[in-house]
TrEMBL record:
The organism's taxonomic lineage, starting at the top: Bacteria, Pseudomonadati, Pseudomonadota, Alphaproteobacteria, Parvularculales
Cited CDD domains: AAA
GO molecular function: ATP binding; ATP hydrolysis activity
Domain of life: Bacteria
SMART domains the record matches: AAA
Pfam families xref list: AAA_3, AAA_lid_2
Protein name: AAA family ATPase
Domain AAA+ ATPase: 48-192
Length: 330
């Protein structure tokens, strides 16, 4: 075997996985209309091995997107509707005391819905902070601890959470520590008129579109392995570091950043940029990420990892607009 053979095998695997993601992207486009960027970013989140937070008003097909992805990838999926009365045990599972026929009593662990490959946490910001934090260990460490015993989660394990806008009544903003566990925050906007016209024709007739599996969980794990093997150029790395560090209100930051940013992104933002940029390249069939990938990911990576202060809000500056300023000056 020649020295180039391993590289050729790797490239062949890359091309095979990229083709499968292309099929998944096309299939999702037939059931979720006018959300091409949302589809790409969600697939990139999974290919990078991360969790995604989908933020948008009700009725924008967030739930449909997640359930369709589970079907496409052949993942075991469960859905939890987060409500104010949902308890941590309702998500993680609990121990029950059982008595055998011989009269012996012992505790048995009953797994909760978190024990799946793709967990849809629907309207996650409607649950209490106590229940929200129950997902924290699962998302970061891929296991949960109940009554002092650790229980491993399936592989792969991903959380795709949906969230209504924070300004709506009856919501509890996610704490910063949990927000940071989401690789990307994907904002879901309203579709354009042509997409909405197609949606009407597709969803109000006698037949509704559905998706069939085009990938397996093994394909997804292979994609995650390939993403971490993909080279990333020094120029791309420098752009990532420059942008992330420019968003931190440190002593040597620009005056506008010091005046308007309450807290900035930590090192996980740089890691998210690196992984998600390579994942986008994989989905597009490119063998390395580009500077355009970094620009495309600036909002999804940074918007939930930084916060503006009252001075910024009083001047009508929002987070996405400020990120655009940072990109222009980076």
């Amino acid at each position: 075997m020649t020295d180039t053979q391993p590289d050729q095998d790797l490239l062949q695997k890359f091309d095979d996985i990229s083709v499968k993601f292309g099929r998944a992207r096309a299939a999702l486009g037939k059931v979720v209309f006018g959300q091409e960027e949302v589809i790409d970013l969600t697939l990139a989140t999974l290919a990078a091995g991360g969790h995604g937070l989908l933020v948008g008003a009700p009725g924008l097909a967030k739930t449909l997107l997640v359930t369709s992805i589970a079907d496409l990838m052949g993942l075991s999926a469960k859905r939890v509707q987060f409500t104010p009365d949902l308890m941590p045990g309702d998500v993680l599972g609990s121990e029950v005391l059982e008595e055998s026929a011989e009269g012996k009593r012992e505790f048995r662990f009953i797994p909760g819905p978190v024990f799946c490959q793709l967990l849809m946490a629907d309207e996650i910001n409607r649950a209490s902070p106590r229940t929200q934090s129950a997902l924290l260990q699962a998302m970061q460490e891929h296991h949960v601890t109940v009554a002092g015993a650790s229980h491993d989660l399936p592989t792969p394990f991903h959380v795709l959470a949906t969230q209504n806008p924070i300004e709506q009544e009856g919501t509890y903003p996610l704490p910063e520590a949990q927000l940071d566990r989401f690789l990307l925050q994907i904002d879901v906007g309203y579709p354009d008129i042509e997409a909405e016209r197609k949606m009407l024709a597709s969803t109000t007739g006698a037949d509704t579109a559905h998706v069939d599996a085009v990938m397996t969980s093994e394909d997804l794990l292979a994609a995650q392995h390939l993403v971490r093997q993909m080279p990333i150029g020094e120029q791309v790395v420098e752009e990532i570091l420059t942008l992330v560090r420019a968003a931190r209100p440190t002593e040597d930051a620009k005056e506008r950043v010091r005046n308007f940013v309450a807290w900035g992104p930590g090192p996980r933002a740089s890691q998210a940029f690196s992984l998600a940029a390579r994942a986008l390249a994989l989905i597009d069939g490119r063998h390395a990420p580009s500077l355009d990938d970094v620009k495309r990911l600036a909002g999804p990576v940074l918007r939930h990892r930084m916060a503006l202060n009252f001075a910024a809000r009083s001047e009508g500056i929002d987070t996405d607009g400020f990120i655009q300023e940072l990109m222009a000056g980076a």
